[in-house]
Design brief:
Layout: E1 20-24, H1 25-39, E2 45-46, H2 56-64, E3 70-72, H3 75-83, E4 88-94, H4 98-107, E5 112-117, H5 120-132, E6 137-142, H6 156-166, E7 171-177, H7 189-212, E8 219-222, H8 228-232, E9 239-240, E10 270-281, E11 284-287, E12 302-303, E13 309-314, E14 319-323, E15 335-339, H9 343-347, E16 352-357, E17 360-366
Helix pairs in contact: 3-4, 4-5
Length: about 375
């Protein structure tokens, strides 16, 4: 069972117990509204990735603002989203194993479900599951456009899978999953743009080959917060799968714009709220948030509220702040915000979001798909 929330509705921020995952609701609202406005007039739909927030509540806010549906990575995430009221979900990943495929087929009886494939054997097993449940499942062929993770080679190999799907009575060919994940955190704007241009070339050639075989390829989906503007301007992509734009993190905030400056398009809205639990010396403070409260795969969090402190080291339950400037401040009991290095895995460490507006708790939302790994 999830641990009880660390705050009550109406409580001042100062009373929120720590460590806690807090959302600046005003910044979140502005982010949710900003991306659809940026896409307006492009003809490209937003299909935000819910692996960032793992929350049907936030997903439904995105749909209400015009999103075509949402993405997720795992069958368990899709189940939680559908249970929470989301009616159109793309599992932007391969689903392998008979048990998981049966769950996909059962879920497709309740909502619009699409999955990705890059293997003929997996495709055959997916069709068997669809037959067993008398379900209709949309299938996208994932192609490797440069990330070198999942994905069949662009071109003939992708066409072969598309032809099998198109001939199926229980599966429908939806198009291509063409996500260049490796480009999302390339700092240099021009280099990031070149990576996406290459992805567009590979996806376009594959689309032409599939359509030349008489198969409609109506959806090209991919992109992320770091590159979506390039895919949206390509004239090829029909959807973008941005996820982190709702929260942002220290790593995305380091990406450079066309002028060479780190000026994020979206606001930081997600923080880890932590308490100074020890001040052993003028040069060091210890907070009660460590590796169990934030991810460090993209570097340490930024000490948001104290410019003269750097989070230098973390252990399971402790974070060590090195004081690099003025020694005063950060007394035992003081509470401060940390900007996580990587928002997605940080969210997965918490049971609850504490939503803050005007320095008070306005809402407490469960991180409903926390730990949904299967």
């Amino acid at each position: 069972m999830p641990h009880r929330p660390s705050a009550e509705i109406g409580a001042p921020l100062a009373e929120v117990d720590t460590p806690a995952l807090i959302i600046d609701l005003d910044a979140l609202d502005r982010n949710l509204q900003a991306l659809p406005k940026k896409l307006a007039g492009t003809g490209v739909q937003l299909r935000p990735h819910s692996k960032t927030h793992k929350s049907p509540i936030i997903a439904l806010k995105q749909v209400a603002l015009g999103a075509a549906g949402v993405c997720c990575q795992k069958v368990s995430e899709a189940e939680i989203l559908v249970e929470g009221g989301v009616r159109d979900v793309l599992i932007a990943n391969e689903v392998v194993g008979a048990a998981k495929l049966r769950r996909v087929a059962a879920l497709a009886r309740q909502a619009g479900i699409a999955v990705c494939v890059d293997d003929a054997g997996n495709l055959a097993e997916l069709e068997d599951a669809a037959v067993d449940f008398a379900a209709r499942i949309e299938v996208l062929v994932e192609i490797d456009v440069g990330a070198h993770r999942c994905g069949v080679a662009p071109g003939k190999a992708a066409l072969a899978l598309a032809q099998v799907i198109a001939a199926s009575k229980h599966l429908s060919f939806g198009g291509l999953q063409a996500y260049q994940g490796a480009a999302q955190h390339v700092r240099d704007h021009a280099e990031r743009k070149r990576a996406i241009e290459r992805a567009v070339e590979l996806a376009a050639e594959t689309k032409r080959m599939i359509e030349a075989a008489g198969i409609a390829c109506r959806r090209i989906t991919g992109a992320g917060t770091g590159s979506y503007a390039f895919e949206a301007a390509s004239g090829l992509y029909t959807e973008v799968q941005c996820g982190s734009y709702v929260f942002m993190d220290a790593d995305y905030n380091r990406n450079l714009d066309a002028t060479g400056n780190a000026k994020p398009e979206f606001e930081q809205s997600l923080y880890v709220w932590t308490t100074v639990m020890s001040r052993p010396s003028a040069e060091r403070a210890i907070v009660d948030a460590g590796l169990k409260a934030f991810s460090v795969d993209a570097g340490m969090p930024i000490v948001t509220d104290f410019a003269d402190a750097v989070l230098a080291r973390a252990s399971d339950e402790h974070g060590r702040l090195d004081i690099v400037g003025k020694p005063e401040g950060l007394e035992v009991g003081d509470k401060i915000r940390l900007t996580p290095g990587h928002c997605d895995p940080t969210v997965n460490l918490h049971d609850w979001y504490i939503g803050i507006r005007r320095q008070r708790v306005e809402c407490v939302w469960p991180v409903a798909a926390r730990g949904a790994l299967a």
